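Morning, I've got a small favour to ask if you have a moment. It would help a lot if you went through both lines with me. Thanks so much in advance, here it is.

***
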Amino acid sequence: MSRIIEFARMIRCVNCSMAGLAVIFTIFVAENYTVSNYTNIVIGFITGFLASSAAMLINDVVDLEVDKINKPWKPLPRGVFKPESIRNVSLILLTLGVLVNVFISFIALIIALIYSIIAYIYSFLRRNLYSQFLVSLAVTGPFIYGLTLAKTEKTVFIVLFSIVVFLINTSREFIKSIADVNGDLKYNYKTVATVYGIKNSAKTAFLLSLVGVIIAIVIGLTKIAGLIYTLTLGVCGVLYTLLTLKVVLNPAKAQNVKNMMIYLMLIALIGFLLSNIS
């Protein structure tokens, strides 16, 4: 049982569930809560969850030596699993997450493949500064993928929301790079924190969050989305931005702030689901 719990921690169940839910929520929003195909709902969640799980697992394998410094409490540094076994499981999950789309359409298969590969290869590109942006690009995947599964006239809203997601997640990636700076420096991983410094990373995270929140609120104020969306994204956005400011003032708070951000993102995702309600 303990190994099952450790494995669940490795795949970050909250994060993977959010990826699957993002696909479902996108379909619900795009089709105004009238689902035309329940197969798409099930396969969409499976794709988001499995692709995200695969990316999380391979990240832990590739980052094993770094995690011995940054996060020695994680399962692989503690020797709970063999890296080779986790690598094999990640490949199986990646393959299943993509191939299950043969039951939907060729386009769905291709979109799932593209975004799954982006999420997966990030871990092998950590010595390139642009890798942090690949993470955020992958996080927009469930929304774009979900859009391909739905019959909708809400393409503009979902694309705009994907831009918000990209900015907000990049902000979190920069905060995360501050928390991981010691191990990243030792292994020559290129992040905003290692290349431009902790302070600059925190300030940039603050600015990205601010811009993302402004766009999110403007979407609501221009009636592209409803009142509940506007209020939810507004409150979550302000709190999220204040968290980044907290790191600007005290970079030592980065690890705690990074963890808190994911829950605000989950609440914002619910706000996205309710975006059709005035």
